[in-house]
Specification:
Keywords: DNA-binding, Transcription, Transcription regulation. Belongs to the LysR transcriptional regulatory family. This is LysR family transcriptional regulator. Pfam families: HTH_1 (PF00126), LysR_substrate (PF03466). By secondary structure, the protein is of the alpha/beta class. The protein has nine helices and 14 strands. Strands 4-3-5-14-6 form a five-stranded mixed β-sheet. A five-stranded mixed β-sheet has the order 11-8-12-7-13. It has a two-stranded antiparallel sheet with strand order 1-2. α1 crosses α2, α1 packs across α3 and α1 packs across α4. The two termini are about 45 Å apart.
């Protein structure tokens, strides 16, 4: 099984050295395990004469089979180990910065009171595609899944808001149509490479490209800029909900907003372990995704 795990990691990490780092063993050990597997199967799994890791036809067939075999094996081990077991150990989770700051951290005390033997590691950012290579157990994904083969638990749906302060509205007015954003100060997320916002115009999902005056690397910083009257930003409701409810922030262009987006907890294995399920249950109590889904 260890040889098959090494083979899988080389494929998914796209290299022997990267697989060794992920498995916390030496590259030589990874190579030996692949050689043993090839000797056992009496066939070559990788094309060695390339700078990139390329699978042979036999390697491609084995990869498809070994993923399900390893997942079933590890799921079986977890089920046996978790029988009547207490939730404990280390849990590594990738969480968007604003959710961690505004929702997770303020409620962690009660989570640790329920599970005092669980050690939590949270890393802020978008880590959905790094579950295997960076050792994450869970990752919170706000939006469509980048890979349909990922295992996930759907939390619900959320939507975006175009946000300003009443003070900004008094000084500059409010846009009545997305095209009017061209005459406003617009604040963008750094990962928005197209520098566009999506709106429903004439029944069609349309990308509008306002003039970008500033960019920030997370939505929490953008929210602070909005609250300081520096412009309009396009932000998730779980980031701005409190400000909108208190009247500190105005939500504009609501009638042009696109359909709600899904929010998932993505996990490495088909069935979450007890510690993973404990955190998923905790995330559900935070009511991050409360908008009715598109089907509703």
């Amino acid at each position: 099984m260890e040889n098959m795990k090494a083979f899988r990691m080389v494929v998914e990490c796209k290299g022997f050295r990267a697989a060794a780092l992920a498995m916390k063993i030496s590259p030589a050990m990874v190579s030996r395990r692949i050689e043993k597997l090839e000797h056992e199967l009496k066939t070559q799994l990788f094309k060695r004469n390339s700078r990139k890791v390329l699978l042979t036809t036999a390697g491609e067939q084995l990869y498809q089979r070994c993923v399900s075999i390893i997942d079933d094996y590890e799921s079986c081990l977890r089920d046996v180990k978790s029988f009547n077991a207490e939730v404990s150990g280390c849990l590594k989770v990738g969480i968007p910065h604003s959710i961690n700051h505004l929702h997770v951290i303020p409620n962690l005390r009660q989570f640790f009171e329920l599970y005092p033997r669980l050690r939590l590691e949270t890393v802020t950012g978008n880590h959905c595609m790094e579950l295997f290579s960076h050792g994450f157990d869970l990752a919170l994904q706000c939006g469509p899944l980048p890979d349909s083969n990922l295992y996930y638990s759907l939390l619900g749906y959320w939507r975006k808001h175009a946000c300003v302060t009443p003070d900004y509205a008094r000084r500059h007015g409010l846009p009545a149509h997305p095209n009017e954003l061209l005459s406003h100060s617009c604040l963008f997320h750094f990962d928005n490479h197209h520098r566009s916002w999506k709106f429903m115009i004439g029944g069609e999902l349309t990308e509008v490209r306002p003039a970008c005056t500033s960019r920030m690397s997370n939505s929490l910083d953008l929210y602070q800029m909005v609250k300081n009257g520096l412009g309009i930003s396009y932000l998730p409701d779980f980031t701005v909900r409190e400000g909108i409810n208190s009247g500190e922030i105005l939500s504009v262009l609501d009638e042009f907003m696109p359909p709600p987006l899904p929010m998932y907890v993505v996990h490495v294995n088909p069935k979450p372990s007890p510690k993973e399920q404990a955190f998923i249950d905790f995330i559900r109590t935070l009511n991050l995704a409360t908008v009715a889904g598109p089907a509703s």
